[in-house]
Amino acid sequence: MQEKIYRFIQSHLGHVILAFALYCLFIVVVLFSLKFFAPKQGINGFADGFSVGLDEQDIEATTKSLLRPIKLAIIVVGMGLSDKDTLRAVEELPEEISFAFSPYTKKMEHWLSESRRLRHELLLEVPMEPHGYPDNDPGPISLLTRYSDAGNVEMLKDIMRRANGYDGVITWMGGKFMSSTSNIRPIFEYLTGTKLLFLNTVSQETPQTLANMAKKMNVPYLQTQFVLDDVATREAILLKLNMMEKSARIGSGHAIAIVQPYPITIEVLQEWGKTLKEKNITLVPITTIAE
What we know:
This protein folds into two domains: 2-53, no CATH class; 68-290, Glycoside hydrolase/deacetylase (TIM Barrel, Alpha-Beta Barrel). Strands 1, 2, 3, 4, 5, 6, 7, 8 and 9 form a nine-stranded parallel beta sheet that branches. It has 291 residues and is α/β, with parallel strands linked by helices. Helix content is 45%, strand content 15%.
């Protein structure tokens, strides 16, 4: 009998059954140990002061660390044309958002003073000839292609005299005027040495050409990439903001957009601003991008 048992144990089938029996015994011992010796707080209690897993704050911090930090600048254009819209923008938008005032603003000094008091950076709009002029008319104080270089510089001086204490100028309309470097060269020459930023809102076929010209003339120059509320609905604005964020993350690390002082735009920007910290986004005044 003992010989038969010995032969069975030595056989392949005996090895398998013996190994399975030992495995079952090991499982029983482990379960018994966990039941009678594990701490009451569960598996996390095996490590004093250490918690297995991540809480919500840990997850938020980890997610944020994986997002590339970016800087975004938003400029509200058309300021000063509507007292109601201008007042709401000045009072409700954060100081990191910059304002661009129209030269047709009737209460220029009042609005500039209020904006500066609340620490907003300021730009002055320079109306320029668009495509489709004169049906598409930028108004009586505009830079036009039919004027001489000297005539456009004098017009620019007249526009710039309408305000003071601003940080730069920004194009308003101007698709046709900005399409030729010969039109803009005398403007850059006049701005040389003023340290005023030139912000171009016109899409360029060769954007680097104007940037290089401005650099040679020592004129701080930036180009906007987005109009956030050309379709003024909540969904469309949020979509453009998302596109702006993605563009900055995969590109230069920053992006620039313009908006109108529409009530829906101000409302969406306020809501969106509450999400910036968790997304590693810094909203900055426009001159910060130029530095």
